[in-house]
Amino acid sequence: MFQTSCVYMELSLMFLGSSAKPIDDNLKNLVDEIEAQSSSLSVLAARQFRYSLRQTLVEVNIKEPRQFNVLEEFIIRAAIEFQPPPTEDELASVLGLDSVFIKTTTATLRTLQTLSATSPLTVTPEGRSFYEKGSVPQPAYPIQIYAITDPLSDKITFQSESLNEIVISLPDLADFITIDHTITDISLLPLDEIQKSIQASGLALHVPEEGKIVTSYKVLASAQKIWRKISLFVIFDALEEKLSIQIRNGKQILESASNCLEVLHAEGKISLQALCKLSTETINFEREVILKQKNTEIEARLEKIRQKALETATKAGKKVVVGEAVQLRDGQISQAFSEVLNSAKNQVLIYSPWVNQAVVNEKFITLLQKLANRGVWILIGHGIARREEDEDKPIPPEVEKKLRAIKTPDGLPSVQVFWLGDSHVKEVIVDREIHLCGSHNWLSYRGDYLPRGESVYKVAIPHQVQEAYEFLANRFQNHAQKLWENALENRDFQLAVESLCMWGALAMEDIALQKIQQNNWLELLPVWLNVALQGLKSKNIQADSTSFKTALLLLNQVSIEEAFVELLQQGWRKVIRAIATNNPKMALNLLSDDVWAQFLRLNIAQKSDSPADFILYLN
User: Residue 341: phi, psi to the nearest 5?
Assistant: First the structure.
């Protein structure tokens, strides 16, 4: 059956290759890049068009602040605080100055529109705003910029450089869709709208928080038509089974223009046949072929499991043992899920597209906490959309909070839950020994009501479990690396802790320690020790691991004055105790003369103790 479907797919792909999808030659490289982003994406059509922008030369006047002098500060402050407000002569009398000095200064402040034009002295709203920042405005100065009206996005943006007028021999997009070419009269727009558009355009001309303000504007020339080249892509996402239209300027996606065309297409106001010679029949055919290709690696892996399950169908009622695969249906699935989780000794990996409170209830939370107490790490990945913000059913915040609140006895997050996205697999792997896979949504459907024909394979065939583990663990490992990079960039301690715990859950404590050492982030050593302690409990890490020797060598880089020394002391005592409980000789071997000297220097051990006495004391 599987071989037949593969042959069908190959023939279909050959047909597709020969049927020449409507893709412009100079867009083929970009099409390849888009499809390379995800195995679920396929570009059904790609075509170039031209459309017209309108460019208008505008002059804006800008005021910037300068620090006020002592006399200016006194005059403005007096005008604000004195009741009734004083005149120039009254201020001159108070200060014992010639009124000429006061009047010269107030004239300057009136020119800058900080003081009102009439006496007594009154501060304008603009003047009060500048005064609160310790400044007064400088005389306004003009700058010429260009207003660009885009009919596709229905937006006005501003830029400092003029667009170049070029001749483009491409079909006009306006010949295929209705574009409103009504020209906005820039001169009629209110000043606050111009200010907002300038800010949104990224020009540092209107920055109120810094006191830099566009105070007025005027149009210097009539609007000029400028032709621009754009590319239109019709993309099918097999993961979401969704057709979308995308407009790009080079590689840049024009979001508002793309959204506009998608709305017009949904309303039946755009013909893809006319726009890019893409018929409904072609779309439906290619969609079907693409869907048959969806997650082929996973399907191939599952097919192997199905075949093995059929071979051992008569054993379906038995408890799965090494070398077996059995098929479970409907009510059997939930029971098997619970049994497999309860059997975990060191590690649970789960991928479920959706997570909700129907499954992650108090009973489930209690089960996970029980696993955490005995040293089991739990990694949960979720998400089906390509972008987290596009998820139709994101994980409820209160559910994520409850999962993240499950801690190890030493306070580390035992359950780590992350959006990974772009996958519809539903898998559970426990201790690298048992693999559950199939159509059941593990964390969003309990399965104990309204049976709907779900089937799951429970596998204990070592090489197949290992293959599944490597596939899923690699996704978590890549996410841990991204978290670590973000943690380094922002020196974010909490993100770093999450990375270390994820590496610990994947039995990669050595990688975690290397990252700490390479980046000289010794503050994380106590965290690593707690991660390693959890690994010792779950037997993910062995007492003779070279990582412990490496961590001990790092002690000579730690000062007794460090704020984290107390946590470091506690961490090493727990780790040495855990090792000594099962292998006292191994614990004693770790405490070489150099290491023992560091233990004494950092008060991990007391000066009156010997290594043997220290281990005896810990136990």
Answer: -60, -45
